[in-house]
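Revision sheet: C-alpha coordinates.
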Amino acid sequence: MRVSLFITCLADTLFPDTGRAVVRLLERLGHEVVFPEEQTCCGQMHFNSGYEDEGLALAHRFERVFADAEAVVSPSASCVGMVREHCSPEVGARTFELSQFLVDRLGLEDVGAYYPHRVTYHPTCHSLRAIQVGDAPLRLLRAVRGIDLVELPQAEECCGFGGTFAVKNADVSGAMLTDKISHVLDTSAEVCTAGDSSCLMHIGGGLERQRAGVRTVHLAEILASTGG
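Predicted:
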Protein backbone atom coordinates (compact mmCIF):
# COMPACT_ATOMS: atom_id res chain seq x y z
CA MET A 1 0.00 0.00 0.00
CA ARG A 2 1.12 3.58 -0.66
CA VAL A 3 0.87 5.40 2.67
CA SER A 4 1.08 9.17 3.10
CA LEU A 5 2.75 10.31 6.32
CA PHE A 6 1.22 13.26 8.16
CA ILE A 7 4.04 14.14 10.50
CA THR A 8 2.33 16.88 12.59
CA CYS A 9 3.91 20.14 13.78
CA LEU A 10 5.17 18.75 17.07
CA ALA A 11 6.89 15.72 15.59
CA ASP A 12 8.38 17.76 12.78
CA THR A 13 9.87 20.43 15.05
CA LEU A 14 10.59 18.66 18.34
CA PHE A 15 10.34 14.87 17.97
CA PRO A 16 11.59 13.91 14.49
CA ASP A 17 12.63 10.44 15.69
CA THR A 18 8.94 9.60 16.01
CA GLY A 19 8.29 10.33 12.35
CA ARG A 20 11.37 8.37 11.30
CA ALA A 21 10.14 5.44 13.38
CA VAL A 22 6.78 5.45 11.58
CA VAL A 23 8.59 5.32 8.23
CA ARG A 24 10.90 2.48 9.33
CA LEU A 25 7.99 0.48 10.69
CA LEU A 26 5.71 0.85 7.67
CA GLU A 27 8.52 0.16 5.21
CA ARG A 28 9.52 -2.94 7.19
CA LEU A 29 5.93 -4.10 6.82
CA GLY A 30 6.21 -3.73 3.05
CA HIS A 31 4.47 -0.40 2.44
CA GLU A 32 5.63 2.55 0.38
CA VAL A 33 5.71 5.72 2.48
CA VAL A 34 5.41 9.13 0.84
CA PHE A 35 5.77 12.52 2.47
CA PRO A 36 3.86 15.41 0.87
CA GLU A 37 6.22 18.30 1.56
CA GLU A 38 3.49 20.94 1.24
CA GLN A 39 1.74 19.69 4.41
CA THR A 40 1.44 22.07 7.36
CA CYS A 41 -0.51 22.19 10.63
CA CYS A 42 -3.93 20.52 10.74
CA GLY A 43 -5.32 23.62 12.47
CA GLN A 44 -6.12 22.05 15.82
CA MET A 45 -4.13 24.49 17.94
CA HIS A 46 -5.79 27.47 16.28
CA PHE A 47 -9.28 25.99 16.41
CA ASN A 48 -9.04 24.98 20.08
CA SER A 49 -7.70 28.42 21.00
CA GLY A 50 -10.75 30.17 19.59
CA TYR A 51 -9.41 30.99 16.11
CA GLU A 52 -11.96 28.86 14.33
CA ASP A 53 -11.67 30.44 10.89
CA GLU A 54 -7.90 30.10 10.86
CA GLY A 55 -8.08 26.53 12.14
CA LEU A 56 -10.66 25.50 9.55
CA ALA A 57 -8.61 27.10 6.78
CA LEU A 58 -5.69 24.85 7.73
CA ALA A 59 -7.98 21.81 7.93
CA HIS A 60 -9.21 22.56 4.41
CA ARG A 61 -5.61 22.90 3.26
CA PHE A 62 -4.97 19.44 4.71
CA GLU A 63 -7.83 18.15 2.56
CA ARG A 64 -6.23 19.54 -0.58
CA VAL A 65 -2.74 18.25 0.23
CA PHE A 66 -3.92 14.71 1.01
CA ALA A 67 -6.88 14.57 -1.39
CA ASP A 68 -5.41 11.77 -3.50
CA ALA A 69 -3.84 9.73 -0.68
CA GLU A 70 -4.78 6.08 -0.46
CA ALA A 71 -4.23 6.22 3.30
CA VAL A 72 -2.89 8.93 5.61
CA VAL A 73 -1.11 7.81 8.79
CA SER A 74 -0.08 10.02 11.67
CA PRO A 75 1.64 9.42 15.03
CA SER A 76 -0.90 11.66 16.78
CA ALA A 77 -4.43 10.83 17.86
CA SER A 78 -5.20 14.47 18.59
CA CYS A 79 -4.32 15.64 15.08
CA VAL A 80 -6.24 12.75 13.52
CA GLY A 81 -9.18 13.77 15.68
CA MET A 82 -9.05 17.28 14.21
CA VAL A 83 -8.98 15.88 10.68
CA ARG A 84 -11.91 13.56 11.26
CA GLU A 85 -14.00 16.27 12.88
CA HIS A 86 -13.34 19.13 10.51
CA CYS A 87 -12.22 17.73 7.16
CA SER A 88 -14.47 16.08 4.60
CA PRO A 89 -15.76 12.61 5.53
CA GLU A 90 -13.89 11.14 2.56
CA VAL A 91 -10.51 12.42 3.76
CA GLY A 92 -11.32 11.74 7.40
CA ALA A 93 -12.13 8.10 6.66
CA ARG A 94 -8.72 7.64 5.03
CA THR A 95 -6.78 9.27 7.89
CA PHE A 96 -5.56 7.00 10.67
CA GLU A 97 -3.66 7.17 13.92
CA LEU A 98 -0.79 4.68 13.70
CA SER A 99 -2.16 1.94 15.98
CA GLN A 100 -5.60 2.11 14.36
CA PHE A 101 -4.02 1.78 10.93
CA LEU A 102 -2.01 -1.26 11.95
CA VAL A 103 -4.76 -3.10 13.83
CA ASP A 104 -8.01 -1.99 12.22
CA ARG A 105 -6.91 -1.29 8.63
CA LEU A 106 -4.13 -3.85 8.17
CA GLY A 107 -5.31 -6.47 10.67
CA LEU A 108 -1.92 -6.68 12.38
CA GLU A 109 -0.88 -7.05 15.99
CA ASP A 110 2.60 -8.56 15.82
CA VAL A 111 4.74 -6.14 13.79
CA GLY A 112 8.04 -7.90 14.51
CA ALA A 113 9.20 -5.54 17.26
CA TYR A 114 11.68 -6.38 20.02
CA TYR A 115 11.96 -4.07 23.03
CA PRO A 116 13.42 -5.61 26.22
CA HIS A 117 12.25 -3.00 28.72
CA ARG A 118 9.63 -2.57 31.44
CA VAL A 119 6.97 -0.34 29.86
CA THR A 120 3.71 1.25 30.94
CA TYR A 121 1.18 2.74 28.52
CA HIS A 122 -0.71 6.02 28.93
CA PRO A 123 -3.87 6.16 26.76
CA THR A 124 -4.23 9.79 25.71
CA CYS A 125 -7.56 11.59 25.91
CA HIS A 126 -7.93 12.06 22.16
CA SER A 127 -7.08 8.43 21.44
CA LEU A 128 -9.71 7.27 23.91
CA ARG A 129 -12.47 9.80 23.45
CA ALA A 130 -12.07 11.50 20.07
CA ILE A 131 -11.05 8.69 17.71
CA GLN A 132 -11.67 5.69 20.00
CA VAL A 133 -8.60 3.57 19.31
CA GLY A 134 -9.75 1.16 22.01
CA ASP A 135 -7.14 -1.42 22.95
CA ALA A 136 -5.27 -1.31 19.63
CA PRO A 137 -2.07 0.14 21.18
CA LEU A 138 -2.10 -2.45 23.96
CA ARG A 139 -2.63 -5.30 21.51
CA LEU A 140 0.40 -4.13 19.58
CA LEU A 141 2.49 -3.73 22.73
CA ARG A 142 1.55 -7.16 24.06
CA ALA A 143 2.94 -8.72 20.88
CA VAL A 144 6.33 -7.00 21.24
CA ARG A 145 9.06 -9.51 22.05
CA GLY A 146 11.04 -8.99 25.23
CA ILE A 147 8.72 -6.34 26.63
CA ASP A 148 7.54 -6.32 30.25
CA LEU A 149 4.25 -4.46 29.88
CA VAL A 150 2.75 -3.25 33.17
CA GLU A 151 -0.67 -1.72 33.66
CA LEU A 152 -0.80 1.98 34.53
CA PRO A 153 -3.08 2.72 37.52
CA GLN A 154 -5.92 5.18 36.76
CA ALA A 155 -4.75 5.01 33.15
CA GLU A 156 -7.71 6.84 31.64
CA GLU A 157 -7.15 10.00 33.71
CA CYS A 158 -5.88 12.97 31.70
CA CYS A 159 -2.21 13.90 32.14
CA GLY A 160 -3.17 17.58 32.29
CA PHE A 161 -1.62 18.78 29.04
CA GLY A 162 -4.58 19.48 26.76
CA GLY A 163 -2.63 21.79 24.46
CA THR A 164 -3.19 25.41 25.53
CA PHE A 165 -5.00 24.13 28.66
CA ALA A 166 -1.59 23.60 30.27
CA VAL A 167 -0.74 27.25 29.62
CA LYS A 168 -4.08 28.82 30.53
CA ASN A 169 -4.70 26.61 33.57
CA ALA A 170 -1.17 25.90 34.74
CA ASP A 171 -2.02 25.11 38.37
CA VAL A 172 -4.74 22.60 37.49
CA SER A 173 -2.58 21.11 34.75
CA GLY A 174 0.31 20.73 37.17
CA ALA A 175 -1.85 18.99 39.75
CA MET A 176 -3.12 16.53 37.14
CA LEU A 177 0.44 15.90 36.01
CA THR A 178 1.52 15.18 39.58
CA ASP A 179 -1.14 12.49 39.85
CA LYS A 180 -0.15 10.97 36.50
CA ILE A 181 3.53 10.86 37.39
CA SER A 182 2.73 9.24 40.73
CA HIS A 183 0.86 6.46 38.90
CA VAL A 184 3.71 6.02 36.41
CA LEU A 185 6.22 5.67 39.25
CA ASP A 186 3.97 3.11 40.96
CA THR A 187 4.57 0.75 38.03
CA SER A 188 8.39 0.80 38.41
CA ALA A 189 8.52 1.08 34.62
CA GLU A 190 11.64 2.15 32.75
CA VAL A 191 9.57 3.65 29.96
CA CYS A 192 6.21 5.41 29.70
CA THR A 193 4.75 5.26 26.21
CA ALA A 194 1.75 6.83 24.48
CA GLY A 195 0.48 7.64 21.00
CA ASP A 196 0.77 11.43 21.29
CA SER A 197 4.05 13.31 21.58
CA SER A 198 2.27 16.21 23.26
CA CYS A 199 1.28 14.15 26.28
CA LEU A 200 4.69 12.48 26.36
CA MET A 201 6.34 15.92 26.34
CA HIS A 202 4.23 16.95 29.34
CA ILE A 203 4.76 13.73 31.29
CA GLY A 204 8.42 13.55 30.30
CA GLY A 205 9.05 17.07 31.52
CA GLY A 206 7.56 16.24 34.90
CA LEU A 207 9.56 13.03 35.20
CA GLU A 208 12.77 14.82 34.25
CA ARG A 209 12.23 17.59 36.79
CA GLN A 210 11.85 14.91 39.46
CA ARG A 211 14.90 13.04 38.13
CA ALA A 212 12.71 9.96 38.26
CA GLY A 213 14.83 7.92 35.85
CA VAL A 214 11.83 7.04 33.67
CA ARG A 215 11.97 7.79 29.93
CA THR A 216 9.06 8.70 27.67
CA VAL A 217 9.08 6.96 24.28
CA HIS A 218 6.45 7.23 21.55
CA LEU A 219 4.60 4.02 20.68
CA ALA A 220 5.95 4.24 17.11
CA GLU A 221 9.53 4.05 18.33
CA ILE A 222 8.82 0.88 20.34
CA LEU A 223 7.04 -0.76 17.42
CA ALA A 224 9.86 0.18 15.06
CA SER A 225 12.53 -1.24 17.37
CA THR A 226 14.06 -4.60 16.53
CA GLY A 227 16.64 -4.74 19.30
CA GLY A 228 18.42 -2.87 22.08
